[in-house]
Structures are given as C-alpha cells and as structure tokens.
Amino acid sequence: MSRRPLTGAAVAVAAIGALLAVPGTAAAASQTYTVDLGTTTGAVLHGSNGALYGQSDDGVPGDNLLAPLKLTTGSQKPPGGAQHPGADILDVAPSFFRNGGGTMYTNIQDEYSDWPYQNNGISDYLTKVDTAVNAVKATSYASKVVFVPFNEPDGNWYTGLGSSNSSTYASALSSFESDWSTVYARIKSDYPDARIGGPNTANWNSKFFGDFLTYAKAQGQLPDVFTWHELGPSSLANYRGHYTAYRALETARSISPITVNIDEYANRRDLSVPGQMIQWAAMFEDTKVYAQQPYWDIAGNMSGNTVHTDIPNGSWWFWRWYAGMTGQTVRTTPPQADVQDTLQGIGSLDTGRKQAQVIVGGSSTDTNVVIDNISGATFGSKVEVTVQSLDWSGYEGASAPPKTISRTAYTPSSGSITVPLTGLNSMSAYRITVTPNGGGTATTPSVPSYSSYEAENAAITDGTVVQQATGASYSTAQLYATSGTKDVGYLTASDSKVVFTTSVPSAGTYNLRIFYGNQNGSPSQQVLRIDGANPRFVTYPSTLNWQYRSNVTVPVTLSAGSHTISLAVADSDLGTSAGQVTLDKIDLTAVPSTPETVYEATLADISGSPSYSYGDVGETGTGALVMASGDKATFDAYAPTDGYYTVRTDYTSSGGSTALALNGTTAATYASSGGSATTSSSRLYLTAGINRIAVGPNSGTTLTLRDLKVDGSGDTTGVTKYEAESATLAGAAKAQSDTWASGGKNVGYIGNSSGNTLTFANVSASAAGRYTVVIHYAQNDRAGSSSYNTNVESRTAQLSVNGGTATTLTFRNTYSWNDYWTLPTTVTLAAGTNSLKFSNSSSWAPDIDYVEVAPVNG
Questions:
Q1: φ and ψ of 192, to 5 deg
Q2: Sequence-ordered strand ranges (E) for 212-298
Q3: How remote is the C-alpha of 133 from its chain's centroid?
Q4: Phi, psi (rounded to 5 degrees) for 39
Q5: Are strands 103-107 and 73-76 parallel, antiparallel or unpaired?
Q6: How much is the pLDDT for 599?
Q7: Rounded to the nearest 5°, which phi and psi values hold at 168?
Q8: Beta-strand (E) ranges in 52-161?
Q9: Helix (H) or strand (E) run with residue 123 in it
Q10: At CA 801, angle to CA 797 and CA 802, rounded to 5?
Q11: Helices (H) and strands (E) in the chain, counts
Q12: Is the separation of the CB atoms in 438 and 380 below 8 Å?
C-alpha cells in the first residue's frame, strides 16, 4: 500500500532519511534478533562479495568502487574466450589485483561461444584447456587463479547427473569422471602448480557429490576448491543444510575440509537489494565459504552493485559495510533460522578497535536487536550505539551514503542492551555500531523528513499495473526487483498519467526521486505537475530494460500539507513528451539548508597501526583515530554531482603537518594545530560518485582525527566547459546532430585510425597544476544477447595532454547513442593554453559531447 509520511519520533527505519526511535528501554516488538559478543565464530571472511563477470574491462567498474569492497574472489572468462565479448580474465586482472582482490576464477568452458556449450568432444576441449591455462601461466597472476574445468556439467555435457534414472545417472557419472581425470591431468601437465575448482554443478546434488569425492580421492584428483551453485530462492532456506551435508560427505571419506566457493548465487530479484543480499551474505559468512554473485544481465557492474564507472547504488554501500567488518564474527540468532525472506544478519567484534558491528535486513517486522555479553574490559561501563539505514536505490540508481538515524548512549545491564528497530523496510539494511562511551555526548543526527509512494497505488490513467519479482518460485524470483513487487507500465496513450497524493510536514525544498525504467532506445520524458500547476519535463536516461530500475531526482518546492504529483505523457501547455517509461514509486525527502555528510574516522579504511580513542565520543559518537607517521585513514566520500565541495577535517595535531590526498594525489597540507582541536577546510573538485580521500600525518606528527565532512551540493564556479563541435577535428571525425547533446551536436567517428582525432586546443589554465577533466560521451556497442545476458561492450580512447604520452581511458556502454554519461580523469596542465587530444588508432572511440575542466583545488 502507499506509505504514509514518516514524521515525529513514532516510527523508524523505512529508508534513507527515515526516523528511528531508540529509547533507553526496549519498545514492544514482534521479533528478536540476538547477538552474542561472548561467542566468536572465526575471523571475518568477507567471502560472499565476489561476482561472476563483475568486471568487463580494466576501469569498469572504476578503482574507486573496487578498492573499498576488499574483494575476496572474482570470476571472469578465460583468455580469448568466445562466450562473451569482453571480461577477459587477463584484461581485468590488473584492476582486480591492484585494488586488493584475492583470488580470480575462470570457467575454461567459456572458451566456447554457445550456451549450452558446443560439445565437439574431449579432444577439441583439451586444445582450449591448453590455450587458457598456458596464457594464464605466462602471467604474474597465475598463482592467484583457480581454473574451473566444467561449468554446470549437470546442465551441459553431462545432463544425466541430475537424473533419477539409475542407468542414466550411472552413464553420465562415468563420462564425467573420465573427463574430469583427463582434463585435470591436462591442466596439471600444462601448469603443475595450477589450482583447480569443481565440480561446479548448477544445483546441489548430494549423491553426485558423494560419488565424485570418492572417485576424485581415489585418483588423487580432488579439487582445490569445491564449487557448486545456489541459484533459487529456496536456497535461502536450504543452503545451510547443503553445507552441513557436504562436510559430512568429506568426513565420511576421511577427506580434510576443502575450501568451498558457491561461485554463483542469488536471483535477479535479490541483486541490488540490501535487504536481500544480507540474507545470502549471512549464510555464507556463517559457514565461512566464498561465494560469487551471478551474471544475469551485463558484465562490468559487479552483478548490479554499481551504476556508472565510479557511482555506487544502494547495494554497493551494503558491500562496503560488509567490507568494513573486522575482527571476529560472533554468534547470532535470527527470529527464524533457515526461512526464506526473513530478517537475517551478521555480527562482528573487534576487541582491538573496540567495535562491534551488526548488519541486519530483509524484513518489515519491528525487531528488537538484543546484544549480549558486552565486555566491560573492552567497552567500559557505558557504550554508544550508532544506527544507520540503507535503502534500495535500484540497479542503476545512484545512492548517497547510508544515513545515521540515531546515536544513543546505553549502560548495559548484565552486559546486555536492546536496540529496537521499528518501521523497517524489507528491501533495506541497517547497521548498528557499538563503541565505548568514555565521555562526552554525541550530536543528535539531523534526519530529514521522508515519505514514499507506490505507483501501483496512485491514480492511474491508461496504464497497467504489472506484477514483478517475488520469491514464490525460481521463475518469479528471476524477474526484477521492484518496490512493492509491482510497477506501472504501458503509459503510451496521449492521456496516460499517474497521479500521486502526497503529504509533507513542513514547507521547503524536497528532492522528488522517481524510480523508473526506460528501454525506449533514447532518453524519455514525462510531464511533471505539482497540484496541477507549473508543468515541466522530467528526462529519464535509458536503462538496460524496462524493469532494470534507476531513479532521477527533481527538486520541488512544497508547502506543508497535501499535494498531488502527476507524471503524464502529454500536457496541454508543453505538448507530448518523448518516449515512455515504467514507473515504480516516488520518494520525497526534505533538502537540508546546508547539505553535509559526515564520515567517522574510526570506521574508515586504515593502513599502518593507529589506535582508537573513545575518551570523548565526539560529534559522531564513535571517538577518534590516533595516528603517527605511516598511518592513514581513507574515506569513501560521495558526491551527488560533479563540482566543488568543502572538505573539512576535525582533528588535533602536534609536531608537524597533515596531508590530505584526493584519489591518490596530495590535495592539501594542514599545519600542526599545536595540540588544540581544530578544523581545516579545502575546496576540492569531486566527481559524481565515490572519491577516495586519505588523511594521514607527515613525519614527526601525531594526529587525532575525528571525522571528515563533505559540505555543499556541487558548485560549478570555476569549471570551464568546452564543446566538442567547437574543437579541432581531424580525419573522419565529424560533428553530428543530436537533440540530446549539449548544443544539439556531438563529435563522432573519432579513432579507428591514427588520423581520426579530436583536439581541444584552447584549454586554459590559470596556473600549473592538477586539473580534473570530465568527459561527456555516448556509446552503445553491443555483441548481441544470449537468453539472459546483454553483451554490452566498452570503448576506449587515448588522451594526450600537450602532446605527451597518452593515457588509455575506458568508456562504459551508455545503453544508447543519445544518452550521455561522464568519465572523469585527472591531468597535469601548464599555466596558459593547453591541448587535450583524443584518439584511438585501432578501434572507435566514443562519441564526445563536451568536456569540463576544473582545477582540483578550487
């Protein structure tokens, strides 16, 4: 049903910006989630954050999205594989490993172009095994790769493995065992130190697994990693039983435990949804196995966790939370164990950092989170509890960081506290952080008013309500995630419109966030009216398909009280809009007068060996980092748009200076504060999405760092725009008309020859230094589609500054030639006039609309 606005202190955590009441004693709740800090269950593994075809190229996704996730595994096609056009393991390995990735897997059968794979006999396949293994063996990455010789054998060459007919099964088993031995031996012959994974079935199969283990042990050919897939919604109920049964199969055969990788898991409706992904991650972390999200749609977006090159969605932030868990996991007891689509979670304890973290999600039922055995030796007599909420933003909808919705001091009773969570949203996830409160009072977080309204419950004219994904079956779970499980489509008639009845508690500016899908082949539009007045077009960029949800945000000014918000195909004043969209829901969130995001230092990524101080909890309630030379804290700072922001640090320092680096390059140096608390600020150009900002003391400095703050909404003063059609075009490069381009034109046919170039020859710099260049581009290369994959491809271009050595940039697919995305890069310019030359001697570069150039320090 349509949700009422969330106001006052009555209710809680429905989504970003919603309110949470956390009183000193527990409110009545319908269920309980228990965390036992006194029982640890092993080091935090971070095992389930991998993805199949999560990367498509070096740079897609960008380093700023990969590094914070601390990826433990990833799976890509073998070198030169024909199954998909990109995502070659050797193409993406540099970015995977330079960003801290652990182990890469490759399905050797992806050398074949068809699905199911062509079966040309084992001799033909062995030539492909040689090609894949020898290519990887020749690289520095070889020891970090696991070769998977058979991918879903029960669905390809050995389908009888899943048969209930004993003779059919026996025949398939004999064939598989023979081929396993042949291929295993060939891999080892090519590369004796190779690690091998298998059997990699599409389904759990106890009988086959037992028979396979018996055979492989007898042959001395056990896999180094035991792999299978959990790809149905029922796995949320059955996986732990599968895991227990598998370990029993090993024990019965006197086989030492083999590393397990569930190297494909989850359905389409789970991906991008924090409340669903926590349910899967909790199972795999509990059992300490590795796991990889599936490749249902496109390569290069980490299985639906990233938007553009450096822009996160809601589930990216979930995985960032997960990556931030340190120390040991602890025993947790959910309200219902092994029940699909219920509240599940993960708890961790780091006694060195004096932090406990709990992530829960997947239910709309009010929940008491009971945290037991809080050690006084670690936390003292009083603790500070910080609660954050993380909403779903769609597969392709940009998401701001999770919102802090409460900071509360608790005095544990017999080592226990109860944190009530009410008004939960089943698509959302929530993090509870427990730290010592050794003194001081945290600032009460400012939580903007928020309300949400489902399109299917609005007044609909000439549109159709469509049922989307549910967890009722595998087929329904393979539909796409949608708020409320429904959306409104077929808004194609001249009178088609959807009218929402809304209410806001006070007058002001609100961000109207519209969740939509657009498979029109170019940007689409609708006419927006508030209370029937002031019509204007809303433009919706293309999405992968009608259900692959994104969102756009439109600021609106509203008075207190009720309002109608209509989205229509046509308008008597403006005429007919372009294209069509599907509508899912709208959100209204009050815009703060002074936008600011605060990042806690004690929750940042660290290097070196800083200590954690909670003697004064400070504004955030989470204390401070105490650092010496060699220590560093790295923050994942989010910018909603390209532009200038004020970046501030609250700290105390003595002895020397402190450096602040933006995306790996020093951007500011702050003098010693002389032992007094101070704040230093810099005006820095941040690009849309994640910007990695590192703070650390220089030699001879002691730094006590509390937080990093990012203020503003992206000021563009000082940014210079250069239209491509006004630049210097050489060879076949030419200006071409496009309604959706800035100025109505872009420049295409750059590249595919060294002579086809685009040069911005008059780029002005007031002083020598580092400048950000934001390239606005379009490209829609595709290599066709399989039954469920869309084989989008990237393009590249070489950028040369003032005739210097060119840098290769990779441009992700924008879904149409009329949709313009951005790719940022940083260059060094000389004072005066500079040139930026785009070229590509071997293939086509993207169409370029314009570039923006801005000094990093504003």
A1: -55, -30
A2: 225-230, 259-265, 290-293
A3: 31
A4: -125, 105
A5: parallel
A6: 98
A7: -60, -45
A8: 73-76, 103-107, 145-148
A9: helix 122-137
A10: 135
A11: 10, 54
A12: yes
Crossing angle of helices 235-252 and 206-219, rounded to 10°: 30
Taking the chain, what is the end-to-end CA distance rounded to the nearest angstrom? 47
DSSP state of 149: S
> In the block, which residue shows the tokens 């441009």?
811
* Whole-number CA gyration radius for the chain: 27
Predicted local distance difference test score (pLDDT) of residue 6: 27
Report the mean per-residue pLDDT for the chain. 95
Give the C-alpha separation, 335 to 420, whole Å. 14
* Per-residue pLDDT tens digits for 62-111: 999 999 999 999 999 999 999 999 999 999 999 999 999 999 999 999 99
Angstrom distance (rounded) from CA 704 to CA 706: 7
Which residue, among 441, 826, 810, 815, has the nearest Cα to 620 in the 3D structure?
Answer: 441
Contact 386/404 with Cβ under 8 angstroms?
yes
SS3 446: coil
655: helix, strand or coil = coil
CB 697 within 8 A of CB 691: no
Q: Which residues of the chain have pLDDT under 70?
A: 1-29, 785
Backbone angles phi, psi at 13, to 5 degrees: -100, 65
What DSSP string describes 597-652? EEEEGGGSEEES--EEE-SS-TTTSS-EEEE-TT-EEEEEEEESSSEEEEEEEEEE
Residue 71 CA to residue 521 CA, distance in Å, equals 34
d(C-alpha 260, C-alpha 283), whole Å: 13
Neighbouring C-alpha atoms within 13 Å toward the C-beta of 553? 15
- pLDDT of the residue at 29: 67
pLDDT of residue 28: 58
Tokens encoding 809: 């940039």
Strands of 190-318, DSSP E: 195-201, 225-230, 259-265, 290-293
Question: What distance in Å separates the CA atoms of residue 100 and residue 98, rounded to the nearest whole number?
Answer: 6
Amino acid at 276: Q
CA dist 679 and 89 (Å) reads 45
Cβ within 8 Å of residue 34, ≥6 positions away: 332, 333, 369, 370, 372
Contact status, residue 580 vs residue 404, Cβ threshold 8 Å: no
The enclosing H or E element of 318 equals: helix 314-323
Look-up: residue for tokens 């919706």? Answer: 540
- Asked whether the beta carbons of 652 and 679 are under 8 A apart, the reply is no
Q: Which residues of 744-758 are buried (b: 16+ CB within 10 A; e: fewer)?
A: ebbbbbbbebeebbb
- Per residue in 31-51, pLDDT tens? 999 999 999 999 999 999 999
- Is residue 683 a contact partner of residue 854, using CB atoms and an 8 Å limit? no
User: What is the distance between the alpha carbons of residues 213 and 211, in angstroms, rounded to a whole number?
Assistant: 6
| Phi and psi, residue 213, nearest 5° | -60, -40
Distance of CA 146 to the CA centre of its chain: 24
d(CA 841, CA 757): 9
- Strands (E) across 7-89 are located at 31-43, 50-51, 73-76
Q: Which residues contact 503 (CB under 8 A, 6 or more apart)?
A: 4, 5, 451, 561, 562, 563
- Does the reported pTM lie above 0.90? yes
Task: Judge whether 839 and 754 are in contact, CB under 8 Å.
Answer: yes
User: Residue 13 has what pLDDT?
Assistant: 31
The residues that bridge with 515 in the sheet, in sequence order, are 551, 585
Q: Are 561 and 7 in contact (CB under 8 A)?
A: no
What is the amino acid identity at position 217? K
DSSP state string for 771-832: EEEEEEEE---EEEE-SS-EEE--EEEEEEETT---EEEEE---SSTT--EEEEEEEEE-SE
Distance CA 370, CA 440 (A): 25
Closest to 325 in 3D by CA, of 442, 436, 431: 431
Contacts of 72 (CB under 8 A, 6+ apart): 45, 46, 47, 49, 50, 101, 102, 103, 290
pLDDT at 787: 74
